[in-house]
Amino acid sequence: MQKLKQTLAAVTLGLVLSVGPAMASDKPGAGKTVEPARATWNTGFFQEALVRRGLEELGYKVKKPKDLANPIFYKSLALGDVDYWCNGWFPNHDSQLPKNFYDKAGKYGYVTKAGGLQGYLVSKRDVEKYGIKSLDDFKRDEVKKAFDKNGDGKADLTACPPGWGCENVITHHMEVYDLDAHINPVKASYEAGMASALASYKSGEPIFFYTWAPNWTIFKLKPGQDVMWINVPKIMPKDSQQAGVDRMTVSGIEGAVSDPVKLGFVVSDIQIVANKKFIAENPAAQKFFELFTLPLGDINEQNTRMNEGEKTAKDISRHVDEWIAKNSDTWNGWLAAARAAAK
Q: What is the bridge-based pairing of β-strands 84-90 and 61-62?
């Protein structure tokens, strides 16, 4: 009996020794609490929820994210009050960083490289019908007439509501390209305006609108299939755009009327931004941040579902479950690499 007890004890000890380290390596974040932040725009919620899920699978306890305006987030991150967010847009956010920001924080990986697009789109069938290549084409009488919804002699553009940053850029474009007499930027509710544009498109009418990505608009109206990105006549940036002037003309944009295309807005990379102290103490999280990336189409699709009413925390969690199930090999590969980085 004594010998049997000794044998069982030895077996038990062997199991503890073999399983214990395996469990530890499977959950390198065990015992650590993480403070994330999240952007105030809901088109960034899905990315945040996916990254949070990844950290949880690595064993971290991840708190509910704090919804913060950009400048407040970057200041909080530098101070160490939060650990990371997934909603950095660069170079768009460069002007909002506190002094010496990169002494305390860094950018990791690409949630979506060149995913932060902004610009003007026109229904593809009308691009082809009227030979539209840039905003300058809206100075032509036949084009203005086709896109004039209210009979004022101007082409109607679904634009940005007052107070949005894009409203200021569109106003700048109307002035510097001498378009005030030719284009009427409609500044009502953006969602209502885009719902109207979508209905018009389905009815066979011409549409002309501003949008950004990620967004539901270019999932419902697909560039290259339904609509086309058009050029500004030439790059004439606002003072606030000067730092990103080399990112206002870009190549490889699906559904653009030319390659490269002059969008007139700074194209940004969407990146995870994290506190350096947190990164130094959490190599598994760093590796996951570096590897995590999403196709722009996947974000647009999820944003569309939110726009159609699936926007509760429970809905977004379900979207995360579904994305992981569809991309299990990629997801498990990220987790495996993150676990290996912690060893």
A: unpaired
Residue listed under structure tokens 């987030």: 73
Q: What percent of the chain has pLDDT over 90?
A: 77
Examine domains 32-114+269-341 and 118-266 and report if their fold is the same.
yes
CA 131 to chain centre: 31
- For the residues of 46-73, what is the DSSP string, one character each? HHHHHHHHHHHHTT-EEPPPEE--HHHH
| Cα radius of gyration rounded to whole Å, the chain | 25
pLDDT at position 217 over 80: yes
Exposed/middle/buried for 131, CB within 10 Å: 0-12, 13-18, 19+? exposed
* Residue 105: per-residue pLDDT: 98
Residue 34 pairs in a beta bridge with: 62
Look up the CATH superfamily of 32-114+269-341. Periplasmic binding protein-like II (3.40.190.10)
Backbone angles phi, psi at 278, to 5 degrees: -60, -45
Residue 272: CB atoms within 10 A of its CB come to: 25
Domain boundaries, the chain: 32-114+269-341, 118-266
Rounded average pLDDT over 208-220: 92
Q: How confident is the model at residue 20 (pLDDT cuts 50, 70, 90)?
A: very low
Distance of CA 308 to the CA centre of its chain: 18
What pLDDT was estimated at residue 191?
A: 86
CATH class of 118-266: alpha beta
DSSP label at residue 23: H
Q: Would you say how long the chain is, in residues?
A: 343
Quick check: 339 pLDDT over 80? yes
The percentage of the chain sitting over the pLDDT mark of 70, rounded to a whole number, equals 93
Q: Which residues pair with 186 in a beta bridge?
A: 158
Indicate the pLDDT class of residue 14, thresholds 50, 70 and 90: very low
Determine the 3-state secondary structure of 333 from DSSP. helix
User: End-to-end distance of the chain based on CA atoms, in angstroms?
Assistant: 40
